[in-house]
Amino acid sequence: MFFTRNRQVLVQKGVDFAVRTLTGHAHYGRFPRQFAGGQERASKLDTKSRESSGRAFSAASTSALWLDGKLESGSLPQSTDVVIYGASIIGASVAYNLAKAGMGAQVILLDQDTVTDGRVWQENSGLVGAFKPTLSQVKLVQKSIDLFQELTDKGLPTGWRQCGSLNLARTRDRMTVFRRMKSQSTGWGIECSILSPEQCKEVFPLLEVSDILGGLWIPTDGVADSMLICQSLLREAQKMGVKIVEKCAIRSISRAEGRGQAIETSLGTVYGTYFVNCATLHARDVGLLSDPIVKVPLHAAEHYYLHTKQVDGLSPEAPVIRDLDGQIFFRENDGRLLAGGYEKNAKPAFEDGLIPPNAASMQLPVDWDHFHVLLEELIKRVPCLEEAFLERLSNVPEVFSPDGKWIVGESPEIQNYLVATGSQNVSTAGLGFAIADLITQGYSTVDIHDLDISRFLGLHNNRKFLRERVREVPGLHYAIPYPFQEFETGRTLRMSPIFPAFKESGGVFGQTMGYERPSWFDQKHCLDDNGVPKYRIAATRTFAKPSWFKYAAEEYNACREKIGLCDYSSFTKVDMWSKGREIVDLLQHLCSNDVDVPVGTIIHTGMQNKQGGYENDCSLARIGPSHYFMIAPTIQQTRCKAWIERHMPPGGQISLSDVTSMYTAICIMGPFSRIMLSELTDTDLAPKNFPFFTYRELDVGLANGIRAFNLTHTGELGFVLYIPNEFALHVYTRLLEAGEKYGIRHCGYYAMRALRVEKFFAFWGQDLDTFTTPLECGRMWRVKFDKPFHFIGRDALMKQRDEGVNRLYVQLLLNDHDSEVDMWPMGGEPIFRNGDFCGQITTASYGFTFKRQVCLGFVQNLSPEGVAEKVSNEYVLSGDYEIEIAGIRYGAKVNLHSPNLPTKYPDQEREAYKATRDKSDESSVMAPKLSW
Questions:
Q1: What pLDDT band is residue 49 in, cutting at 50, 70 and 90?
Q2: Burial classification of residue 355, based on how many CB atoms lie within 10 Å of its CB (0-12 exposed, 13-18 middle, 19 or more buried)
Q3: Dist. CA 783–CA 773, nearest whole Å
Q4: What is the dihedral of CA 815, 816, 822, 823, to 10 degrees?
Q5: Rg of the Cα trace of the chain?
Q6: Dihedral (Cα; 109, 113, 119, 124), 10-degree rounding
Q7: 414: how many CB neighbours lie within 10 A of its CB?
Q8: How confident is the model at residue 495 (pLDDT cuts 50, 70, 90)?
Q9: Residue 82 has pLDDT above 60, yes or no
Q10: What integer pLDDT is reported at residue 37 of this predicted model?
Q11: Coarse DSSP helix, strand, coil percentages of the chain, rounded to the nearest 5 percent
């Protein structure tokens, strides 16, 4: 019926199609001379139809906004403080926020298109949703909403309407997601409520709700018009001195004197202290124009918007509807419906890498076959759509990063080269605040580490990789966010030499920074039908007890009572050296711990920023008087190296080499690990010769040059062996042979996670970030205020030490929680103290020794107004705690420091080391007897 009613408009637009009827039968033809019989096929939209199916997204005239003559395209100056490239909503927001900060006269905005007639802005849905996967994204969206309201209050056109949004659930797991979001909203400050199917129908009467289990209503969500907002932002920015230069394409970017950039354009060369790449669809190509190349990993996919004509019964106040399980959304737009979705198998756009230079030529041919999956879901959810008249179906390119998140921050390759991109959605306006902060004060007031461009490697910028990944990423926007989600595309990129052996041993793999590493081992199901070891990607498709639980339990027990062998090869490894003391002095400046220690010592230290937060959390082994070997988290591979290079003195006196791919790292842990390793080396491994937290170079088996660390990153007794790749398989084989009599077992990262959470070990990117300080997480003993060098962040940490902290890192053990049937914590759950909200969980895992769920997180002392006040040990220990998981609260016992876990084989070294120290109350330490 939908196609029958819309024959005329489709014929006028010359739509090429291979349309399926709603019963699933395919019919081909030039739609719709004969619905079933025609054999003609239109190859593309004609020129006229392309023009007619362009923007027309707002009722307001695009050019009418500029009739006051206040927006003019200027000439290119020779130099300025900030050059912004791309008049996207992000670029306009950056210009506006810098102008508000008083820098208007020092900012120019360039675009290769014509800004004043509106052709530079691509069509988008205009949806503004408060909920995002991380708190940083939530805060940036709120910044966007504040900006829209600010412009609206000034009487400027924005199209902003706070109509609310209704998210629908068809499955029990989706309802679980909604209940988790409702719990999480307490800490994130988002108003929302769970609705029944009948209540959903009341909110939007046109809905079909017979297959709906419920919904999540978010009244603060809304819609806005990105074109109107861009125009308003640019007009206001220009009033405050920002210069706009149209039809100015960048040819190349090179380093100028100092820390500036020389930007060669089609209109000449301009020198800027800062350059901001906001070019959205062209951002990757712009990155390739610089020397050195700046990696901005983005790829466009086809993205569809269905526009109807007037729909009877559609209220102008209708909310946004997201049918997440159907992968669709729709909204009211001037009495019409605007609908779209995120199909599970997206189509890459511009696969040849040639992106048109301007928005007017970017309209893509529509593919009714591809859109039909979404159309069926739309008609199912809103049956009246079948009777509606079609205005147009638009196919516009939308960019996606490899992980689907926005990209923001200073590029690792070039100082003062900033990037803000990752989507054309109206919600990205908040990124302008973060960029303005970075330029005006050196850091963002919103922690953006999870969005930082340094989370990528060169492999992520490979165009073939991006083309493959972009088929998957759009569909994940509406997929159920199960714990430990893994990508299906772009796999088996980085592998250690022992990867095939792990696969044969039953490894089930996760991926971090492109590196394959086992999550758990399942020997029984590792062969395919032909008896060949198969490659398996880890999956946890439940919010309760996972299918891999028993495997992780066995691996955990091996690490605690026998020997576990784990692949640590993905960890970041960097060699640093100099001829003299230059490297020592540099690290003393960067590190809050004292690194001027005897050769052979390992130092665990943070590298703090000026606010005292963690820019890096690492272990440093002093290999020689002027030689250090750094081990950092896997996700820090780009970030930590860039942080060090930014602070290196000129002159080339210090050398830095990323050797991550040169070494295979094998961790052996457990009470028999020392005895077993002693059988394979001539080096005396006795504690007096090779004590805890020291480094030695060993021969193992027939191999030499192996860097051995006496630590495990989980608190267990053991060693990490950094093996030159050519020896990796040999050493691995010898370890398995020698360990057989001790019950050695392969172990994956889920068991490692359980070990470190029980031992109260914080990890960067999960528990630690750029706003977390050592004093807040019990690591003050690693901060050496009295060392002879003034390290970065010292003043901020001393001030915090004197004034006290506003939050403390704690471990919480759940009571009355049945891990067999109850939903498991997965991070982000709210913590309640004496019934009042006081913080959120950062990491959670099942504790196999505690035999209960263990959560790590931060506790605050919040006033009734929500202001964080000082927190002491006594305050934390005097409260009664609860953790809310999907709407249900469970009591919890609080620990302030590392517990002493009982073991059959107590070891003085293992028990002496604790992740947190200097806590006065020992009563929170777990006693050997288990009373629960």
A1: very low
A2: middle
A3: 10
A4: -30
A5: 29
A6: -70
A7: 20
A8: very high
A9: yes
A10: 31
A11: 30, 25, 45
Q: How many residues does the chain have?
A: 932
Kindly provide the b/e burial profile for residues 606-628, where b requires at least 16 CB atoms within 10 angstroms of the residue's own CB: bbbbebbbbbbbbbbbbbeebbb
Largest CA distance in the chain: 89
The model's pLDDT over 561-578, given as tens digits with 9 standing for 90+, comes to 999 999 999 999 999 999
Is 95 within 8 Å of 263 (Cβ atoms)? no
Using DSSP, state whether 549 is helix, strand or coil.
Answer: helix
With beta carbons less than 8 A apart as the criterion, state whether 160 and 149 touch: yes
Q: Average the pLDDT over 250-261 and give the result.
A: 87
Other C-beta atoms within 10 Å of 537: how many?
Answer: 15
3-state SS assignment for residue 849: coil
Q: What's the gap between Cα 910 and its chain centre? A: 34
pTM: 0.91
The Cα–Cα gap between 772 and 104 comes to 33
570-599 pLDDT, tens digit per residue, is 999 999 999 999 999 999 999 999 999 999
The residue whose two tokens read 């062996």 is 721
Query: What is the per-residue pLDDT across 754-812, written as a single tens digit (0 to 9) for each?
Result: 999 999 999 999 999 999 999 999 999 899 999 998 999 999 999 999 999 999 999 99
SS3 558: helix
Of 635, 706, 213, 628, the C-alpha closest to 456 is: 635
What does the block give as tokens for 778?
């019990």
Residue 336's H or E segment, with its range, is: strand 336-341
Task: Using alpha carbons, select from 505, 624, 514 the residue that is nearest to residue 569.
Answer: 514
Q: CA 76, 82, 88 angle in degrees (round to 5)?
A: 80
Q: At what angle do helices 135-153 and 431-441 cross, to 10 degrees?
A: 100
